[in-house]
Specification:
heterodimer, A: about 290 residues, alpha/beta, about 35% helix, globular, B: about 260 residues, mainly alpha, two-stranded antiparallel ribbon
């Protein structure tokens, strides 16, 4: 399953004074099985781009193909496309509407016309996938905590059985606990369930930890693409567009600017610790952390 | 689907008409609407029509936008024309089945159609060139004398501007929720009326929930900034009539007088 975007341009309200070019000549591929992070400052076109992945928006120019099927073809069954490419919007808990968690998660599979027992099976599996206890099945979604509501909403998309899961800033506005829970679930969806994941984010730490590939959008164009290590090595470029790099990477950059011979392509606290110990010449498995500071 | 749908039909611009005081434009439009009902003969219609079209050109409004607002009431114009044509008594012009068209009817029909068209032209000119916020501001000033009669002018204007302020927000939100449900396989286009009405539930429930939350937040934010209604409240933008406003008032008074002479 791959999504191929070629020469995609999207213009809102063309031909009026309110015209906005949201995307311009974007070429992009979402490869089967990858964990792609889409980063970019506010207004860079991330949300517009992902709404083309399942045909919610139509290109002004260019084309989007899912599994080789061109979405601008009028004969395409968009419902089928939307089943395969699941899209979780920003603040998805705001779209909950049913009286019970069960009914809300079942909305997608019911629309797809599955028989009741299959719907029920999918609802249970989807809740398991996001790590929610089946005891909440009959509770009202509006009684749950913010993080739980969001996971219910994500389950609502997972219940359709997508091969690609696209999430637009899934951790925005959550407390650290809720954020960690969501991130852990995303990692497991990618690793254990083999889903292709596209994560829209401007939390650089999240991206550094999870993504296998990063695409940087800026003013509707693709500014850079590569592995997290390659992209975050270009700290200056990222800062210029208002994004920055993960805090640990920044610390390493600052140390280097002060003349310490440390690597700066460091993405996690663990890597940073190792690198610092190496530079400080501490013996591996040495006595005490922090010992041996010159 | 609704994204960026304009509120009312404000057409942003910098023309002379855009910069006029909203009170001037509201007053002129109000007067025009009244004058229209005294007109019976074509020279009068011609004078007002030409003046209104010239004003649209000065304001830089594309004619296709005018046509769009006229088209929306085209059915009404045709219907009232037909009604007048066949229902007015007088010497017969032609017969259509059981119906008799009269010359007097033709005349009345044309007059009514002309009035409706000019009505749309004049009110469109107001809404094309005045932002909704300026419109409510102007309205508040004009309603102010009625406060003595117990009309809550400030509150009415405040409610109007809040409503106007949140229309785009609501549309945006409805659009987002609709798309989110479409991503879950919802279908809003097919099925009979009942099915379609039912299919709106997944949009309306979230929309209501968030509207109530938003209203709460807004009330809190207003109270946090010591909002206490209109009494003794000063404004950031004070409306001022300038030379252009008096010139516009005088000019339109002349045009309307001319039209009344030829009525």
């Amino acid at each position: 399953m791959a999504i191929v975007v070629e020469g995609l341009t999207h213009i809102y309200l063309p031909g009026t004074p309110m015209e906005v070019v949201a995307l311009q000549d974007v070429d992009l591929e979402v490869k089967d099985g990858e964990f792609l992070a889409l980063i970019g400052p506010t207004g860079s076109g991330k949300s517009t781009l992902v709404q083309h992945f399942n045909g919610l928006l139509r290109p002004t120019r260019g084309r989007v193909a899912v599994d080789g099927v061109d979405l601008s073809d009028r004969r395409v069954n968009l419902r089928q496309v939307r089943q395969r490419v699941g899209l979780v919007f920003q603040y998805p808990e705001q779209q909950l509407f049913e009286e019970t968690v069960r009914a809300d998660v079942a909305f997608g599979p019911r629309n797809l016309g599955f028989p009741p027992d299959e719907v029920e099976r999918r609802v249970r599996q989807a809740l398991e996938m996001v790590g929610l206890d089946l005891g909440i099945l009959d509770r009202s979604p509006f009684e749950l905590s913010g993080g739980e509501m969001r996971r219910v909403a994500i389950a609502g998309v997972l219940a359709m059985g997508p091969r690609v899961l696209v999430l637009d800033e899934p951790t925005a506005g959550l407390d650290p606990g809720g954020r960690e829970e969501i991130l852990a679930r995303l990692r497991s969806l990618h690793r254990d369930y083999g889903l292709t994941v596209v994560l829209v984010s401007h939390q650089m730490e999240e991206v550094a930890r999870l993504a296998t590939r990063v695409v940087v959008l800026h003013r509707g164009r693709v500014l850079a693409t590569g592995s997290p290590r390659e992209v975050f090595a270009r700290a200056e470029m990222l800062e210029e567009v208002g994004l920055g790099v993960p805090a640990v990477t920044q610390v390493m950059c600052l140390l280097r600017a002060r003349g310490w011979p440390v690597r700066t392509d460091v993405l996690s606290p663990e890597e940073a610790e190792e690198e610092l110990l190496r530079v400080m010449g501490a013996p591996p498995g040495g006595q005490q952390r922090g010992a041996g500071v010159p | 689907m609704f994204s960026g749908a304009p509120v009312g039909q404000y057409y942003p611009g910098e023309s002379l008409l855009h910069r006029l005081d909203p009170r001037t434009k509201i007053a002129v439009t109000g007067a025009l609407v009244v004058v229209l009902f005294f007109l019976y003969r074509w020279p009068a219609f011609l004078i007002l029509g030409t003046a209104l079209l010239a004003a649209q050109v000065v304001a830089g409004i594309p004619l296709r936008l005018l046509w769009r607002s006229l088209r929306s009431i085209l059915a009404l114009i045709v219907f009232t024309f037909a009604l007048q044509l066949f229902m007015t008594p007088g010497p017969a012009w032609f017969r259509l089945g059981p119906l008799t068209a009269t010359y007097a009817g033709l005349n009345m029909g044309l007059v009514t159609a002309g009035r409706l068209i000019l009505l749309i032209l004049s009110t469109s000119l107001l809404t094309f060139t005045t932002s909704p916020i300026a419109l409510t501001d102007g309205l508040e000033y004009l309603l102010r004398p009625l406060r003595r009669l117990g009309v809550p002018a400030h509150e009415i204007a405040m409610m109007m501007s809040i409503a106007l302020r949140f229309i785009p927000t609501l549309l945006e939100e409805a659009d987002r929720i609709m798309k989110a449900q479409m991503a879950r396989g919802a279908d809003f286009q097919s099925g009979n009326v009942l099915r379609r009405a039912r299919s709106m539930v997944p949009i309306l429930v979230p929309l209501f929930v968030s509207s109530f939350r938003r209203a709460d937040d807004l009330a809190m934010a207003m109270e946090a900034r010591c909002y206490r209604g209109g009494e003794g409240r000063t404004r950031l933008w004070v409306l001022r009539m300038g030379a252009a406003d008096y010139a516009a008032l005088a000019g339109w008074a002349f045009v309307m007088a001319l039209a009344l002479v030829f009525r």
